[in-house]
Amino acid sequence: MGRTGRWFAFQHTRVQPDVLVLAKGLGNGMPIGVCLARGTAATTFEPGNHGSTFGGNPLACSAALAVISAIEKDALAARAAQLGQRMLDGFNRQLASTAGITAIRGLGLMLAVELDRPARTW
Q1: What is the predicted pLDDT for the residue at 113?
Q2: Pick from 47, 21, 52, 54: which is nearest to 35 by CA?
Q3: Taking 70 as the threshold, does the pLDDT of residue 55 lie above it?
């Protein structure tokens, strides 16, 4: 949630998912799971068809609301976009001509450095 510079990664594309699942990022450490659906997919489930250990208890839902509020209030998705671009620019400056690197890319703080060989483990 927000890591790519938008609320959800699909928002960088023209894709409109029928089902969206959320978990760890929504609870910020509090276990919660959510399944959002639209269109025909939304009519597939009826109350009681789908359960979750961490799906909707009051404490988990309160934590999720606090997370959403903090992301909105502090404009954290926009901040992730700014910081991610700064890091991407820095990686490109510092690593673009490094042997073995074939691509440097990212969306917000979801960054990748693609290698032409397996990475060494230390």
Answers
A1: 94
A2: 21
A3: no
